[in-house]
Queue: 2 jobs
Job 1
Amino acid sequence: MSGFMRVFSAGYRIFFLMAGLFAVFTMLVWEGWLAVHAAGGMVNDMPFGMAPHYWHAHELVFGYGSAALAGFLMTAAPNWVGGKGAGQAFFAFAAALWVLGRIVVWWSGALSPTVVAFADLVFLPVLAIRILMLLLQRPKPQQMIFLVVIAVFWVANLRVHLEWMDVTDDGVAEGLRAGLLTLSALIMVLGGRVTPAFTRNAMMKAGQQTSLPRDLKPAAAVAIAFALGLPVLTLFGFDGPVFGAIAICAGVAGLVRLSLWRGGWTLGQPILWALHLGYAVNAFGLIALGCAVLDVGSEVAALHLLGIGAVGGMTVAVMSRAALGHSGKALVAPWPIAMAYGMIPVAALSRFAASLWPEFYYPGVLVAGALWIVAFTFFVIELWPVFTGPKANPAG
């Protein structure tokens, strides 16, 4: 089988590869646009119809986010039910739908907004139907919830397109915020499962049988329920003190959970501490968002902390681990991947500072973007043989 065809043999191969490539492309475009403006120039003609900052936000939330989500679910769901994964034809078809969405959004300035909306919105329902077919083989409430999350994510994107279609007047900001908060909620759910579980497995493999990670159920319930409620509240237009308090409670509960997961033990293993770090940034991002809603701090800064540090950091951690594990490689992060783990939270802090101090805006944003580009370039180059090569022989 050729490397090109092998890419379509598993969800982690095609979708994680596309996510990495697209993360680099979108940020290169955004960095170029910003650099021209930082130098005093002006870029007036772009192929997309929306404002550049909205294209940037939409494509990283719904473009990159949907690819990372698809790769994870299409890899994990067959394992959850003990069933067979999809074939090459499905992955090629689904990947084509995802690429179609990115193309029409890029050329949206020359296309009907209705056409753009349809082409961009069709991917997630196809993904959801496939996952539903898998989960129905052995339905469990804790797995079926992912279909609800996909639905909320899809509705958030729909809200964005409804404003671009002139159907509503206030959908873009709410939809983007709800989409990002949906990804944040997924980190609370999935990160809350895999981070302590993988840490526990590693500790036991190292011979440690005591002081293992544990999860405090009340904290888990608050963190997950409140985090899942935030995108729904956003879609229904709820804001203000109650929203801020819920965000803060979700973040604090997440930190309480994290404190019991033995993060200090993982410091010598990047492939583990990256999960802890991504979950921590997500929790701090929710607290920062709650404070901003209560007029303490910048909401834009908080949203970028969630988008770059939490979503970017956790997805790179999960994607790299899943790719290595499912391809039969050792669960040890190569040094470029470990560097990427460290660069992304630094990028998040730089972008956070850019929003807090206007005089630092252009340097902060450009540094953040550069770190993001380098991190994902490392991710793509280092894992390219994993995505395109044959599965390693575990015995070898």
Job 2
Amino acid sequence: MSGRFDVLVAGEYYCDLIFSDLDRPPVLGGEVFADGLTIRPGGCYNMALGLTRLGLRTAWACDLGTDRFSGIVRDAAKADGIDASAFRELHRSLQQVSVAFSGAGERGFITYREGALRAPDVGLLEQLQPKWLLQTFRLEPDWMAFMRAAKAAGVSIYGDCNGEGADLESAGVREFIGLCDVFSPNEAEALRLTGTRNAEAALQALAGLAPVIVTKRGPQGASAIASGRRHDVRAPAVKVVDTVGAGDAFAAGFIAAAVRGGAIEDQLLSAVACGSLSTTGAGNSANPSAGELAAFVARLSPTPSYAPTV
């Protein structure tokens, strides 16, 4: 399929085994029982699903293999209506699995990744003509070249962060952030990147490295600096079941508002609302539809300056 897409998501899949409602964290030598278990595709699947449910024309550039976990993701994508135009089928195993555990509002992961991850084909940019690229935090030369090609093609880039141990002095980090129109680490990632001791100092240290810096702050909501101005949105109170994938839903909400012409305040509100709603179910099961998000945002802000398409 060709023609202009709203968003191209670039990044790997994981198959998530999510244990929820733990009474205490797992420890070596001990056994912990969970009250819930969900098996769902994860990784960048969460982003592609979140954007698709919000009504954006979304393609996901992802490698899939011949293994059972790739099969689970492939079948789920078909059932969830995720466009497969950018899938790259490999004739080998590509097992990528995360065991996630959550409780008391926190989460942890044990992850297995098989083989190296290649950047998407640059030809996808011409084929799909995306307005936005949602790019995972990858610093390898082929991934950086893909970002540069997207930038040269006039694609807006939302850069997501991850839990790897890079900082601002690591090779490629400043270039990655500089290629982004929006760079959005969570609070812990921002602290690690900048080497600062608090969220406020981290946000200020990142300001100016990209046109918009957004820090995801969990229950505290989100903070942003855009065009030199500070913006804050508090998270609404919801009954949290599982925080896995909340950051991915946040990105989907932000981009959805941006595509539909919302100002930065609307983008932040949509992002926080979407991320919050996603925590009310396990994994990505509670990612909202456009109508659900619009209704929730309307309750939080009775006079939003944009109207999401239902």
